[in-house]
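Could you help me review a protein record that somebody else here produced? This is what I was given.
***
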Amino acid sequence: MSLRRSLVLTLIVTTAIGVYAVTHHSSAPTDSTSAYILITPTVLENSVPMMSTTAIIPAPPHVTAVHVAVLTLSPTVTASASSYSVASSADVIDLKKIRTKDVAVEVHKVAFGENYWTLAKKANIDIYTLIGANPTMPFKAAYHMTLNILSQKGILHTVHADDTLSKLAEKYRTTEKIIQDANHIHWWHPIQTGDVLFIPNVRPLLMVKEWKDYFSKRGMFGVPFSKWANWTSGFGLRVDPFTGKKREHTGVDLRAKYGDPVYASRAGKIIFAGVAGGYGNLIQIAHGQGYVTYYGHLSKIYARLGAKVKRGTLIGRVGATGHVTGPHLHFEIRLNGKPLDPLQFI
């Protein structure tokens, strides 16, 4: 009887060890890199923040953005942070000097409940066009503020004394002919200082400091998934679901299905891979310059301690380990140990 008990006990322990090894430190599948996350840009992606209290990053046109923020990937890179200029009160657009007759400009007063994203969507333009038509547009929309809303995507540029068509074409990465055609410029009607030109399908380079700082940080880190992701709990003060008391939430909780793949948000070195209290199964990646990302509540860990990973490398799978109310990914970005809002960097 004693021998039988010993054999049964040995079998149970062996099985438990095997399950733990498979669950926590499985080998990554052969296809261990996300092409989506690898093309996440370093500057200026197509996701832009909503100016609302319930969301920071806007949903795409087919998603209703109510109490949810949607993260998106984009392969578009248009300018380096050093290309931006900070706008001042002198850069307000003089609509009386617009050269183009092919683009309508509506002067809109922001109503209660409106934000930049809803206005852009309604006009079938984007946030970049709003900034391009309003260089002094503040980072947060205010009730009854006025905005120039264009009927087409593009920007408005006030001609300076040293501007030429060739310089403008190079600056905005377009062609002289496009600028000429859009503004009816001819040898007998050249551009003059003070003219306001419409340059179609380009991104703004003149904006207030808050927008410049925002865009200079965007894309430093990629979305840790290969698809759209909704956040269910944002960064900052929140009510703890277990204690009912207010406490700081040091990251964002991203909704996902159990077992969904999780990818490295940026190239770096695995400095932790294991169980860590309320985080459950946790991976930490050091990226240099003091930046570290956290990936918590995982069901599986593929990353090995000390291993170097590329941006987009499969490191684990979504789970419900640690203190959770359901499957999701807890994602953090820290700089020298201080938590930062991840949605400002993705």
